[in-house]
Design goal:
The complex is a heterodimer of chains A (about 160) and B (about 300).
Chain A (H helix, E strand, L loop, with lengths): L2 E5 L2 E5 L8 H8 L18 E4 L2 E4 L12 E3 L12 H9 L8 H14 L5 H7 L11 H20 L1
Parallel strand pairs in A: 1-5
Antiparallel strand pairs in A: 1-2, 3-4, 3-5
Helix pairs in contact in A: 2-5
Chain B lengths: L1 E3 L4 H10 L4 E3 L5 H6 L7 E4 L9 E3 L3 E5 L4 H7 L5 H8 L4 H6 L2 H7 L7 H6 L5 E6 L2 E6 L4 E3 L2 E2 L6 E8 L5 E6 L10 E8 L4 E7 L9 H13 L2 H4 L5 H13 L11 H24 L8
Parallel strand pairs in B: 1-3, 2-3
Antiparallel strand pairs in B: 4-5, 5-10, 6-7, 6-10, 8-9, 11-12, 12-13
Helix pairs in contact in B: 3-4, 8-10, 10-11
Classes of the chains: A alpha+beta (about 160), B alpha+beta (about 300).
The complex binds flavin-adenine dinucleotide and FE2/S2 (inorganic) cluster (2 copies).
């Protein structure tokens, strides 16, 4: 079947999609958007997290056909014209990236957290990231990165 | 494989009647795992995401009609007051990403004894009904009659869960779940408790400790009886320790758990008694406004 939706603001079309295929497979293998990672294919690791109509979801658990006509935003769509999103920059600056496999999902999930709650407490951060597994960092640098991103965003807001 | 995309319930029911083997997919958090791992190759998928009504709920003040495809995240944010037991259970499901997609309709469709929506639905009162719809008409199935066996429900092949009707809470409701960590766990076992002061009944639900989710009927009758006999529904007051203990024993006795990878039968019985006592402590504190006594 053909599936048509919006990915990172751009209309995309995928042909010959198998009806049982996941959105993750379509993004990675058919649309050249390999940022979202495939690690578990069962919703456990969060490395495939993307926005679907503004909500972060596991792309491996969305049937390709369910994305028809909807808006998807992946890690590739976070950076703007003028460079990295503050969340991405904070992950770099805080050293929250080691092998980087979990990073795309964490970036999208953190982005979604800060959109909803610009000043999360540590417990809120842990709760928001509870579906994103990282085998390298031990999570402390990730916590630092989220705090840093929140602080920078708040700073920007204060400056206007 | 076919991908069927109804836009309305009428279309969805017509398609399900035409293709009884089509597998409905709402949040996909159960179905897609099976597809990704080649455990299931249905001839067709029936996408419920486009049926707008399925993702709505409404309340007349007495009963909430919860559309089958309202995701857990919205139950948590929108229904904490009306359906506190279900909202508490919804909070424990998977992760934020899973809660953004997973639905009660899907939990009922899977009918796993470990599904977290089941215990609070069983506890929420005798009025809980599953609205099972087909082109032949609509059946209102009492939730007690819905679960037939492990992953088997009363749904006919041409039926879909359209909504669940749940009485608005008239008293405190609690949910407790044991797992290896706080997030992302299929329950080892779980327990839901609801006090119904209006008709002076008690509701319970046990998860993951029997072939189906089930109530602890004797524990319910015992506690309701004690509260009535001692005049505690009217005057509040402390709960006798012996009553709390007996309630826990009866809750555990209602289960018929097995040993499996997640836990042993003995552990499950033990944990159920603990959860029953704790949820009773929390509910009773909520009912009386008295500080909770340790119920460990
Ligand atoms: C990582 C992860 C963690 C999880 N954690 C939990 C947890 O903590 N607690 C828990 O209870 N579950 C958990 N689950 C399981 C799952 O999320 C739930 O069972 C959820 O309620 C399924 O809803 P869904 O809409 O995603 O169902 P789907 O996958 O879309 O469907 C599930 C089943 O129900 C059928 N179905 C769906 N909608 C209907 C309908 N309206 N009428 C008839 N049949 C229907 C489908 O055909 C399928 O058989 C987890 C799953 C994953 C992947
Ligand atoms: S690949 Fe989707 S959650 Fe792991
Ligand atoms: S950096 Fe390697 S998994 Fe997180």
């Amino acid at each position: 079947m053909r599936v048509v939706f919006t990915a990172n603001g751009r209309r995309v079309e995928a042909d010959d999609v198998w009806e049982g295929e996941s959105l993750l497979y379509v993004l990675r293998e058919r649309l050249g958007l390999p940022g979202s990672k495939n690690a578990c294919e069962q919703g456990e690791c969060g490395s495939c997290t993307v926005y679907l109509d503004g909500e972060p979801v596991c792309a491996c658990l969305v049937a390709a056909g369910q994305a028809e006509g909807r808006e998807v935003r992946t890690v590739e769509g976070l950076a703007g014209e003028d460079g990295l999103d503050p969340v991405q920059q904070a992950f770099l600056d805080a050293g929250a990236v080691q092998c980087g496999f979990c990073t795309p999902g964490l970036l999208v999930q953190t982005h979604a957290l800060l959109e909803r709650d610009p000043r999360p407490a540590d417990a809120d951060i842990r709760e928001a990231l509870s579906g994103n597994l990282c085998r390298c960092t031990g999570y402390e640098k990730i916590m630092d990165a989220v705090r840093l991103a929140a602080a920078r965003r708040a700073g920007e807001g204060a400056q206007g | 494989m076919e991908f069927l995309r109804p836009e309305t319930w009428d279309e969805a029911l017509a398609l399900k009647a035409e293709h009884p083997d089509a597998v409905p997919v709402a949040g996909g958090t159960d179905v897609m795992v099976e597809l990704n791992f080649d455990r299931r190759r249905p001839p067709a998928l029936l996408d419920l995401n486009r049926v707008a009504e399925a993702a709505r709920w409404e309340s007349d003040g007495a009963v909430v009609r919860l559309g089958a495809a309202v995701p857990y995240a919205r139950i948590v944010s929108e229904l904490g007051r009306e359906l506190p037991g279900l909202a508490l259970a919804a909070r424990t499901v998977g992760s934020p990403q899973i809660r953004n997609r997973g639905t009660v309709g899907g939990n009922l469709g899977s009918a796993s004894p470990a599904g977290d929506a089941h215990p609070p639905l069983l506890a929420a009162g005798r009025g809980v009904r599953v609205e099972a719809a087909s082109v032949r008409g609509t059946r209102m199935v009492p939730v007690d009659d819905f679960y037939l066996g492990p992953k088997r429900s009363a749904l006919e092949p041409d039926e879909l869960v359209r909504a669940v009707h749940v009485p608005v809470a008239g008293g405190p409701q609690q949910f407790s779940k044991v797992g290896t960590r706080n997030a992302m766990v299929i329950s080892v076992c779980s327990f839901a408790l609801a006090l119904h002061p209006a008709d002076r009944t008690v509701g319970t639900g046990i998860g993951s400790a029997a072939p189906t989710p089930r109530r602890a009927a004797e524990a319910e009758a015992f506690l309701a009886g004690e509260l009535a006999e001692r005049g505690l529904w009217e005057r509040g007051g402390e709960l006798d320790e012996a009553v709390v203990r007996r309630f826990g024993e009866l809750a555990a006795a209602a289960a018929s758990p097995i040993d499996d990878v997640r836990g042993s039968a003995d552990y499950r019985r033990h944990a159920l008694a603990v959860m029953a006592r704790r949820t009773l402590g929390w509910c009773w504190a909520g009912y009386t406004g008295l500080p909770e006594r340790s119920a460990a």
